[in-house]
Amino acid sequence: MDRRVAQGRSHPRSPVPSPPSTFVAVAVGASLVAIALVVYTLSHPYRFYDHFEWQAAAFLEGQAAIRYPVAATAESPGNAFFQDVLPVPTTDGIPRALVPFPPLPAVVLMPFVALWGLNADGQLIFAILGALDVGIAWWMLGRLPIRTWVRIATTVFFGFGTVFWYAAQLGTTWYQAHVLAVGLALAAVGIALGSDRAAAGSEDEASIGERDGAAAAAVAAPSSLAATLLPDPRQFLAGLLFGLACTSRLTVAFGAPFFLFVGSGGSWQRRGWSAALGAGIPIVALLVYNLATTGHVLHPGYQHLYELEAGFYKPLNYHLEWWIEDVRYLPQNFGIMFLNTPVWLPNEVPSALGLGGPLCTSGSMRDWFNPACPMVLPRDTGMSILLTSPGYLLILPALRWGYGHSRAVTGAALAVLLIGVVNLAHFSQGWVQFGYRFSNDFVPWALILVAIGLDRVATRASAPPSWAIAARLLLVLAMGLVGLSVLVNFWGVVWGDALGW
To answer: pLDDT tens digits for 29-59?
Structure first.
């Protein structure tokens, strides 16, 4: 690895705004959590995709496989309609099946299922956790030397301007995994950013992902071989939280290179070793769990699901002769992530399987939120991330004007890129969904870039007069992108819930 990239290079300095007092920071963070809690819990509908509650119940029985199929009753929809489970031979006389998804969300739900059984409201529990994630994002962004209003705007963008809003308020099986993984990854990133700054012992921009001159050599070179080999406690903790995030959403694991670039430990080797040691504990535990319950290191339930969906959902263009992760899926999935548009002036509810009913048959006027005759509807296979969250365009000024050759920018950009490419190579893209839900896997790192990008635009807006007018217009545009992101996601939440997604 190039030492100039791994350790950073000098760059022109600019003043770093004073951070808010601890009282103000806590008050603002608590307010944002409270707002998110109200919004997420008021907007979430009842849905009965609750694989992790059944999994938690199985764990409490001392079983890895859930009871399946269970017929619906007047009190419960049962689970006989579950498709994405793998039936297995019974060991206790009760028909059972394995849930292929990493089990950490089920572990979180175990105490609630122990108290209330399958009546535990997993959707509500994860809506609350989603609101707490907004607070963690606020805390994480406070580890960056950015303006307070930029920190607020980026947190609002995360909580209400990305598909995280849809995930947190819906809280069904797949979204529970996202909510938990995002919170743990945000905490891991925040610890790495904060310990990197503490290790530098400076409050200027060089304290996050930068090293200059003699200070670089002093921080980069541990005092002895033993110091190099011993794991750094703070980076170990960041790695442990990151590893736990991976046991909720596997693809988060491809954000690992970030911890080579950012964190305490002094050198990229020690940063990486310390984080890997921490992350290895939960990840190895997951692999052992898979081996013990299925006989395979990688869960065979995914192959079963692939074969099932390829047979049932032919319009989704799956190819069984291709691998579950296959570069040949990149072109069509790239189109979903970046090019898919909503359906304008629809005459029927848009559905990949052609299951939508007719619209506008009564002569009613089209409206943005008229279920009988809408102006525009989201597409169930997904929509462009740049349409649903245009605030992500603020990543561009971060890449262009970020902290010179900052390790924070480099590491975050690499994490976003790797997670994005791996997800695009996956056969499924998260259908049925509003927007592109797999973007939740890289949002903790994307937020770093959005915040830095917005802060860099603000810095340009305070530049000499020759720059001022254009830069201020650019700043207005940047804030407009954040506001537009919130409006689009409000529209998506309303329609996703109305369409029963």
So the answer is: 999 999 999 999 998 888 889 999 999 999 9
